[in-house]
Each structure stands twice: as structure tokens, then as C-alpha cells.
Amino acid sequence: MGKQSELNAAEFPTFLYDQGDRIGLLKRILKALGSPDQKFKIIHICGTNGKGSTAMMITAILKQMGHRVGLFTSPYIGEIYNGIQIDFKNIPSRIFEEKISVIKKLLRTAAFANVKVSEFEAQFLISMLYFAEQRVDYVVLECGLGGELDATNAVATTMYSIFTKISLDHVGILGNNITEIATTKSKIIRHHNVTITAQNQSLEALKVLENEAVSKQAVFLNADRVTITTSQQSKRSKQVHYRALLEHSEQSGTFRFGLAGTYQLENLATVLTWFFDFVKRTSFQQRLDDILAHSLAELVVPGRFETVQQKPKIVLDGGHNPDGISAFVETVQKLYPNAPKLIVNGFLKDKSYEIAVQKLLTLKNSSFIITQPENQQRELSPVKLADVYQKYTNRQFPEFTSPVKAIKQAIMTASPTTVILVVGSFYLLNPIRTYLLSRSEHNGN
């Protein structure tokens, strides 16, 4: 199974998010390391759902345009090295360990007096050192938790601040309502950059983002000026037709798009808004639809409505909060309306899991297997989750503390026509995905 972390918990604590001036500390560390964050242009992505997909699409497009691209994502899928990539290739473990040593040595100096940085902060610092050393042109930088106090907000400046849909998540840490959460996230906006917001952003969030952009004299673009329609081309891809009303012109075209979730079209509108602005600013000359087709037709985003096995069909989706589950349900209803569905489900205890369960129960012809994510601090026990299912269905479903045992049970009980859907926390998806892929490799599939 993929290792969840190569960082020693005693040296790099899991969570230091709100303990003192974390951003001030990280800025000092970056400066002491030679300001690696200033050696490339940064596209900073924040929001609640869709950050990872948006980040990977932008990375794929930049790579197709001939650029060398660093990608920092959180939560990573699989091993810790997957969270730090150049041109979609993981940071080598040897270089990862080298950068940890550099950081530890710096923190032992008198200037830092053995101050602690968290696991996530260390990963961020490692990525900045690696990307600078490897001379990437652009870095696509995904926020971890929030915005204002997120480690990634220690960077000096950014070319773009991109906001996917903002909804209620990490309530109490980021804020108690949409306005407060959006305010926290809006603080990644930098003076004179370009700020982009997703389609269908709530009015509360939109107002906050726009006001912050104005205060920072940033260009503010809304993806709701992009219209997308689709026609199915094959089981694996669809034909996308788009029309974008730009500041002084209109752009339209068609290309093949491979991501399955219906929610990916909303993310795509955000990406297209960025792309057309980026092309304008960099005077790019190639045919735009060719770039989009070559970068997005075969793109796979791990854990976002990802098919990992065909017989039986197994699909993984990291819908882990009510908005994410709503998007997941919409996609399932469109793609598998009548098929028997066996859903393996587990959430973290700090999510609004009861509302999420209610949404999952709207799926017709479905049964459930209940398990828990692999995260000792935040896991929700299968017993507690099963109680919620029983409350709304008056039925008892199988419970497993082990995600791998849960998926084994699902495979054993599924009929040839059953679609197995694994949905919930990425800490649930990680062990199941690793098990299924290693099983597939072992079987030579």
C-alpha cells in the first residue's frame, strides 16, 4: 500500500494551522532558502471542491504548450511524492529526502531555534526548493486548508488566483458561513494579478472575491461568461462545444474532453477562462482547440470519478462534503441511472456527513457498504456512520473498519452488471485505489 507520509510525525506535526504566525514564519524560511518561490510564475488555486481537477487541467494545458510545469496538490493520491510533480512525474524519493535534510538543517540554526513546521508546510517548502532547482516555468499551486493561513499563501506573488466553487467546509476553522469562509480564501489574491472565479459562485462568495480583487487592483474574471454544451462521442470521452465572451472578443470552438464527472464541466469553464486570458497575455499562436484536445482528451484525474477497474466496474470519487456528494450523485444519475449500484462509503468526522448520506440515499437501485477513512485523528467510525444510514432507511448495511476489506466484500458480492462506487474522503480512496491498482498489476490487466 502507498505510504501516507515519509515525514516523521515527531519532527513534522500533522496540524499547526492556527498556531502563531505561520505565514510569517514560512516567509522567513523561504527567504533563508534563497526565495525559491520567486524563481517561477505561480497559478494559485483555492476553493472548496474542484481544486485538484482544475489544477491538473491547467498543468496539462501548460505542458502541451511546451512549458515545464510544477504541480503541488493536496490531498495527494497514493504516495506523498504524488503531491509534488514536474510535468506529471513525481519528485524522486532521493530528492525529497535531500530537501527534508536542507529544511531540518535550517530549522536547527540560531535564527530558527528548532521551531517546528507541520507536515504540510514541509511538503510545500520541499516543492518550492525542487521547482526552483529544476527551473520550471510555471507552478500550479493548490491550497491545502483555506487560504489566508494556508502554507501556500507564503509565496511572494502570483500571476493568477483561481477560485473554484466555495461552499461550507472546515466550518469553525475557516469561518461559520459562506461569507466568512470566502473572506479567508480571498486573502490569496495578490496586488495586480488576475483573479478568476468559477461559474455559479454564490452571491455571498462572489461579492467577497470581487471586493478583495478591487482592493488589490487585480483583474477580476468570472467563468460564467463561458457556455459549454456536450455531445457524447464515446464511453470514454465527450465532444465539448464552448463559447466564451471575452473582454473585447468572442471565442468559440470544439474539442474532445475525457473527464467523466458532470461537475468537471463547471471546472472546465474556469480553466477555459484562465486559458483564454493566459493566451492573450503570452501571445500564443497555435490553434487553441488542438492544445485543448491534446491536453484534456485523455487526462485522468486520480480519485475524481475515476474508473479503476472494468469487471466489475469500479469508480472512485473523492466527494467528501455535501456539495461534492451532490455533484457525485448528479453524475451517477446521468451515467448509471438504472444499473444496480453498490456504494462503498466513509467520511471524516469533521464533515457534514449526515447531509451527505441523505443525498447518497436519493440514488435508485443502490445498496451500501460502510467503512472508515485511514486517518486516526479524524476518521468517523463505521458504527456511527451506519447509525445515520439506519436512521433514514431503517436498514443495517455491512460495516468494515478496513477500507480494503470493504472493497473486497463489494467485489465478492457484486453481480456482473453491478457498478461499484467508492465515495468519500481521499483517506478512504487512497488505500482502496492502491490495493486495486496493485491487484490489477499483479493480474497483468
Task: Describe the model.
Mean pLDDT is 91; it is low at 1-5. Strand 7 (194-197), helix 6 and strand 8 (219-222) form a beta-alpha-beta unit. It is built from 13 helices and 16 strands. Helix content is 38%, strand content 18%. It starts with 21 loop residues before the first helix and ends with a helix. The strands form three sheets. Strands 4-3-2-5-1-6-7-8 form an eight-stranded mixed beta sheet, with helices on both faces. Strands 12-13-16-14-15 form a five-stranded mixed beta sheet. It has a three-stranded antiparallel beta sheet with strand order 9-10-11. It folds into two domains: 22-296, UDP-N-acetylmuramoyl-L-alanine:D-glutamate ligase; 306-443, Mur ligase, C-terminal domain (Protein-Tyrosine Phosphatase, Chain A, Alpha-Beta Complex), CATH 3.90.190. The chain has 445 residues and is an alpha/beta fold. The protein has helices at residues 22-32, 51-64, 93-107, 119-133, 178-186, 203-215, 264-282, 288-296, 322-335, 353-360, 382-393, 403-413, 426-443, and strands at 41-46, 69-72, 84-86, 89-90, 138-142, 160-163, 194-197, 219-222, 226-232, 238-245, 250-257, 306-310, 313-317, 341-346, 366-370, 419-424. The chain crosses the membrane at residues 410-429. Belongs to the folylpolyglutamate synthase family. Pfam families: Mur_ligase_C, Mur_ligase_M.
